[in-house]
């Protein structure tokens, strides 16, 4: 059976399972939008304890791809709702080390009713600057989730370089080319909703089949 990797969304090609852990305190749903150039993608996080469900959502509301992460069991699965298939994400090597400068500017602003602080992270070697607007809360799942996903995107890598950032969540982040100050990517939170999530949404449906290579 041929697996449509695209329909697995951001699937296992950008994912990995390393040492996670940590107990998530926030429970609910977070919607955000990712813009890279002219391409816009919507994502939705469902969080409950050590369990995280990440959905890639099409403009018409259809769920195109899902990832299920268990921070305690150190497992992650990519799921295709269209094909009713799932596969376990393989381990991937962590990104190479690089130096950054972190500046807490002291600037604040309100985003979606939440007080946010500005943190600017720059890397001369990568020729990038990312401006994060972060809010403090019980978002202890976020850093372990980034480690689990192991994406090589600057938005993720730079955030993990910030010291004492546990419990914070980026409501808005913008990546610029340092030498030209041109905006190249943006992550924008659209809604943060605290609610109890059903445990079954973090499980692989019983009628889904495992993809065999």
List keywords for this structure.
disordered N terminus, 213 residues, single chain, 12-stranded mixed beta sheet, mainly beta
Note down, in words, how this protein is organized.
The protein has two domains: 5-93 and 194-210, no CATH class; 101-191, no CATH class. Mean pLDDT is 87; it is low at 1-24. Strand 7 (101-111) and strand 8 form a beta hairpin. 7% of the residues lie in helices and 48% in strands. With 213 residues, it is mainly beta. It has a twelve-stranded mixed beta sheet with strand order 7-8-9-10-11-1-2-3-4-5-6-12. It is globular and about 50 Å long.
Summarize the structure.
With 213 residues, this protein is mainly β. Helices cover 7% and strands 48% of the residues. 30% of the residues are buried.
| Structural class by helix and strand composition | mainly beta
| Biggest sheet layout | 12 strands, mixed
Shape: globular
Rg calc: 17 Å
What would the average pLDDT be, to the nearest integer? 87
List the helices and strands and how they pair.
Layout: E1 28-36, E2 39-48, E3 51-57, E4 63-70, E5 75-80, E6 85-88, E7 101-111, E8 114-123, E9 128-139, H1 142-149, H2 154-159, E10 167-177, E11 182-194, E12 209-210
Parallel strand pairs: 6-12
Antiparallel strand pairs: 1-2, 1-11, 2-3, 3-4, 4-5, 5-6, 7-8, 8-9, 9-10, 10-11
């Amino acid at each position: 059976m041929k697996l449509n990797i695209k329909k697995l969304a951001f699937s296992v090609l950008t994912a990995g399972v390393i040492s996670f852990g940590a107990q998530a305190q926030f429970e609910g749903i977070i919607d955000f939008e990712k813009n890279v150039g002219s391409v816009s993608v919507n994502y939705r996080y469902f969080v409950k304890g050590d369990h995280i469900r990440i959905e890639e959502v099409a403009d018409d509301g259809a769920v195109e791809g899902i990832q299920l992460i268990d921070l305690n069991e150190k497992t992650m699965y990519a799921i295709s709702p269209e094909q009713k298939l799932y596969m376990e994400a393989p381990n991937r090597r962590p990104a190479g080390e690089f130096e950054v400068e972190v500046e807490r500017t002291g600037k604040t602003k309100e985003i979606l009713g939440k007080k946010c602080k500005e943190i600017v992270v720059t890397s001369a070697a990568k020729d990038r600057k990312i401006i994060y607007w972060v809010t403090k809360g019980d978002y202890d799942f976020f850093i372990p989730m980034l480690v689990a996903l192991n994406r090589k995107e600057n938005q993720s890598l730079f955030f993990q370089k910030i010291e004492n950032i546990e419990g914070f969540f980026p409501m808005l982040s913008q990546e610029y080319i340092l030498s030209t100050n041109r905006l190249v990517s943006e992550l924008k939170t659209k809604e943060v909703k605290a609610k109890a999530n059903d445990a079954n949404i973090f499980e692989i449906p019983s009628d889904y089949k495992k993809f065999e290579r």
